[in-house]
Design goal:
With about 350 residues, the protein is α/β, with parallel strands linked by helices. Helices cover about 25% and strands about 25% of the residues. Helix 3 packs parallel to helix 8, helix 5 runs parallel beside helix 6 and helix 8 runs antiparallel to helix 9. The protein is globular. Bound molecules: aspartic acid.
Length: about 350
């Protein structure tokens, strides 16, 4: 008997489903027009169900409630489908894929984020190929088990781990890169999976963890940054966590004013996580004296975390852990493949 595979598509918006408004700007429209443009779906032997956001968004508008909605839709439908495809704008796709990877504890089915650089109605659109291959990946099985039981981004022939990806192109079709982790698959004539890089299948129920705390910020350092700017950031009312985007392998100015601002912030209980602003960079706070000074004060080393994976991890841990010590401990440990040990 040929059992049909089933996929739930969650349509959130993004360029794929956009058209031009009267003023000539791209805005999202509803999903029905996307299905019309992919007639091949009917011949794929996949049962596709679509749940659309009531108001599709440009992903620049994505926020905590949207993430909770996406995770909730997946958890409510988890047992019914073989896999999930999330149609999402590219601008913040790496943030959404990262946070969903934390929120969907125990995930053992594929959740594939995809989108497009050109609206599906455009002649040269990449949407059709991205959606069709994502659907195939979402149902792909080996020995009865999903081949990719994790949150991924599929874009322009490559499948990347979601919490390792970063948008790196806004004008070309290869919009995403994953400098610190190899692709999970390359889609050529066949879809060639890199089985060794994929998270192993672990049976068990899904554990939805949907409490998020967004009292966090990213501070990107630049030469010439003033004490006033740094002190203001650390003084933000209610701030609980800060991702510090440092130079190279985790280095910051180590002049007195900077270190005492950091020390004061840590003293107030603000958690500071050090990530590198270099794409493909890795923090090693032992390498240079400038990094060692941060470590000595209690700044946490984020190893090879992307900023996207770091800031969402902070929101996730601050929301789900009651104890500050646990937040600090888990920030420097891999939760679901987002970073490589060791972190110093
Ligand atoms: N601004 C769009 C969005 O992120 C860009 C895209 O979809 O590629 O929703």
């Amino acid at each position: 008997m040929n059992i049909e595979a089933s996929v739930l598509i969650i349509y959130t918006g993004g360029t794929m489903g956009m058209s031009y408004n009267a003023a000539g700007a791209l805005v999202p429209f509803n999903f029905s027009q996307i299905l019309d443009k992919i007639p091949d779906l009917n011949s794929m032997n996949i049962t596709v169900t679509v749940i659309s956001f009531p108001e599709p968004i440009d992903s620049s508008n994505v926020g905590v409630q949207h993430w909770k909605d996406m995770a909730y839709i997946i958890s409510e439908n988890y047992d019914t489908y073989d896999g999930f495809v999330v149609l999402h704008g590219t601008d913040t796709m790496a943030y959404s894929a990262s946070i969903l990877s934390y929120m969907l504890g125990g995930l053992n089915k594929p959740v594939i984020f995809t989108g497009a650089q050109l609206p599906i109605a455009a002649l040269r659109s990449d949407a059709r190929e991205n959606v069709i291959t994502s659907l195939l990946i979402a149902i792909a099985k080996k020995d009865g088990k999903p081949i990719v039981p994790e949150v991924c981004i599929f874009f322009n022939h490559r499948l990347l781990r979601g919490n390792r990806a970063k948008k790196s192109q806004s004008m070309h079709f290869d919009a995403f890169e994953s400098e610190n982790y190899p692709p999970l698959a390359e889609a050529g004539i066949v879809i060639d999976y890199n089985h060794a890089a994929v998270k192993p299948f672990v049976p068990g129920p899904l554990d939805l963890r949907n409490r998020l705390d967004n009292n966090v910020m990213v501070l990107k350092l630049f030469p010439g940054i003033t004490p006033r700017v740094v002190e203001h950031c650390f003084d933000i009312d209610g701030l609980k966590g800060l991702v510090l985007e440092t130079f190279g392998s985790g280095n910051s100015p180590n002049q007195g004013w900077f270190l005492s601002a950091v020390e004061k912030a840590l003293g107030k209980g603000i958690i500071i996580l050090n990530v590198s602003q270099v794409n493909g960079g890795e923090v090693d706070q032992d390498r240079y004296q400038t990094g060692r000074d941060l470590k000595k004060l209690g700044v946490l080393g984020g190893a090879d975390l992307t900023t996207e994976a770091a800031i969402t991890k902070m929101m996730f841990l601050l929301g789900n852990e009651n104890d500050e010590g646990e937040v600090r401990r888990k920030l420097v440990l891999p939760l679901c493949g987002e970073m490589t040990l060791p972190s110093t």
